């Protein structure tokens, strides 16, 4: 089995309505997927327009990259490349604490 770091794809230029389920359905024809994540705005939960799709096997990811780069999904051409910054998709670090203080107000957050 290939390292998840060498079999993860960055999928960009996503339509705002693209979900993890749709990406899973779209990319699973290339091989077994270990994880999918659409990145979203922390406050609004709207899509940021990109995702990571990680395969268990690197040859599956290579096929997906070749076939799906510039392919249309919801009338937008996908921009696909190797993902080198999807570590948070593939493993969680228990030392990472991204929670916000409940007393934090919007103006302070913007500072």
TrEMBL record:
Check the record and name the InterPro entries matching this protein.
Nucleotide-bd_a/b_plait_sf, RBD_domain_sf, RBM42_RBP45_47-like, RRM_dom
**Keyword Chloroplast on this protein?**
no
Q: Which stretches are annotated as coiled coil?
A: none
SUPFAM superfamilies, from UniProt?
RNA-binding domain, RBD (SSF54928)
Q: Which Pfam families match?
A: RRM_1
| Keywords annotated in UniProt | RNA-binding
Query: What domain of life is recorded for the organism?
Result: Eukaryota
Q: Which GO terms describe its molecular function?
A: mRNA binding
| Membrane spanning stretches | none
Q: Where does the RRM domain start and stop, copy by copy? A: 7-85
Name-wise, this protein is RRM domain-containing protein
